Amino acid sequence: MMKIGILVPLMLLLPPVLCEWPGLRHTKYIWYSRRSTWSEAQYYCRVHHTDLVTIKDKVENIDFFHGRGWLGLYRADSTSVWKWSRGDQIANFTIWRADDPDLNENCAYKHSPKLEWCSDFCSARHSFMCYEERLVLVKEKKTWEDALVHCRALEAVEPTLPADSYQNHRYDLATILTADDLSFAQEKAQEATTDEVWTGLRYMADRWLWIGGEVQIDNYGCVNQRLCGALLKNGTDFFRMRNCRERKSFFCYKKP
């Protein structure tokens, strides 16, 4: 069984332009002042960024002390659990204003500067907060090549052209270049529906290459051209070489 170690040292592998690699943990938050319904805000965030903001715990909520507008928190009706828009994850942390949430209000927003959240009718209009993450886990199972097509279709660089047209894609199968990237990817992989997650690693031109062209440090010589690299959810071997036709969850990432 083939395995691949993490890329160390990077200076031996990467061209100088990648010395400013921003890392996969990088997340950007964007506030929009225009007043929109919750669904309108969700749609805009998903088209132009990743989704409406998710606040997972007390520490993150403090970071959003001055944030205001719609959050990604909603419920289907008064008898349903509260979920986050991104991935429909059940909200394990909430911090409501006194008397909220109202029985008939199914979407959440916050004022600034406040820590507590408020409920409102989803048809109400508020400003909103989007976030943009570099590493995106797709739980759907696909072959490596189908996963590549999926990632490249997520967002176009030039909106007037198809995202899958030549070099017009903002996203690609993920390249994992540093120890911190690897640690973060394994954390996110815990939510995958498969034990291994496709990455942008593949054997091409007698070398193991990341989809962006970076060379993998380990060299296993001549192997089956149809092998691709999958990240293990657990363990210290990190990667496994698998038949590219196997169907797995996969990582997309926003290119630098």
From TrEMBL:
Keyword NADP: no
Signal peptide: 1-19
Pfam family, one: Lectin_C
Record Gene3D superfamilies: Mannose-Binding Protein A, subunit A
Residue ranges annotated for the C-type lectin domain, each copy included: 29-131, 126-253
Domain of life: Eukaryota
PROSITE patterns given in the database record: C_TYPE_LECTIN_1 (PS00615), C_TYPE_LECTIN_2 (PS50041), IG_MHC (PS00290)
Keywords: Disulfide bond, Immunoglobulin domain, Receptor, Signal
SMART domains: CLECT
Protein name: Secretory phospholipase A2 receptor-like
The keyword Signal is assigned to this record: yes
